[in-house]
Amino acid sequence: MQLNRENINFFLNDLDTPITRVINRIIIGLIIIWSGILVAATYQIPDNINLIIDVINITILLIFVVEYHFRFYLWIVNSTIKDENTYYLILDLIAILPYSLAAINPILIYWLGWLRILKLLRFIHKQFLFIRIPDEALIFSRLVYTFFAIIFIFSGVIYQVEHPNNELFSSFIDTVYFSIVTITTVGFGDVTPNSELGRFLTILMILFGSVLILPQVGDSIKQLIQSANKVSDSCDPNSDVQNQDS
Predict the structure, then answer these.
(1) What is the number of structural domains in the chain?
(2) Which parts pass through the membrane (predicted)?
(3) Is 192 left (phi over 0), alpha (psi -120 to 50) or beta?
(4) How many whole angstroms separate alpha carbon 24 and alpha carbon 11?
(5) How buried is residue 119: exposed, middle or buried, by Cβ count under 10 Å (0-12/13-18/19+)?
(6) Whole-prediction pTM value?
(7) What whole-number distance in Å separates Cα of residue 68 and Cα of residue 80?
(8) Is residue 246 part of a domain?
C-alpha cells in the first residue's frame, strides 16, 4: 500500500472502520502504558524487569515520534493555524520533547515526562472510545480527564522534587494522596512539601484546578439542567398546547 496523504489521514483520523478504530485504540493503550512506565519508575524494580521496561519505553517513544511526524505532515498539507489539530499537535510534541531535552539535563525526562498524559486529550471527543456520546457525557468525560491529568502531572513532578529529602513523599501514591486532598480543598495537613519549589508547584496545582475544573463543573451543571428541562418539556402535555396556541 502506497503511503500517501490520504492513507495516512485515513489510518490516523478516520474512526468509521474497524481497522482504524483498532489503530486508535492501540495508540490510546500505548499512551496509558507509557504514562504508567513513569509511575513504575518511582518504585524499586529488579534490574532485569527494569531493562524490559526501558525497552518498552524507548519502543513506544519511537512509535510516537513516527506518529508525530505523520501528523505534522498532515497538518502542513491540510491545516491552518486556527485548526484545533494545531493544539493536539503541540501536545504531541510536548509528550516527546523531554527526550530531546535530555541532552541538556537527563532529569528533564522525569520532570516533564509526566506531560505525556496530555496526548489522551485528542481522543476525548464526540466519538469518545469510538462510540458516539451525547454532549453532557462528553462534557463530563472532559471534566474527569482534566481532574485526572492535573493530579497525574503535578503528583509526578512534586514527587520528583520532594521525595529525595521528604520522607512524607516516599512513593507516588503518597503524592497522589496529597494532590487529591489539596485540589479538593480537604487539606488534612498530614502530608506537606518542605521545599520552596514543592510549595510553588502546589500553588500552581491549585490554580490550574480552579481555572480548568471549575468552569467545566459549571458547564456540566448547565448541560444537566438543559437536559432536564428538555425531558420535562417533552413530558408536559401543556407544552404542546401552548406551542400550538402560539
Answers:
(1) 2
(2) 22-43, 55-76, 96-118, 139-159, 171-188, 200-218
(3) beta
(4) 8
(5) buried
(6) 0.84
(7) 17
(8) no
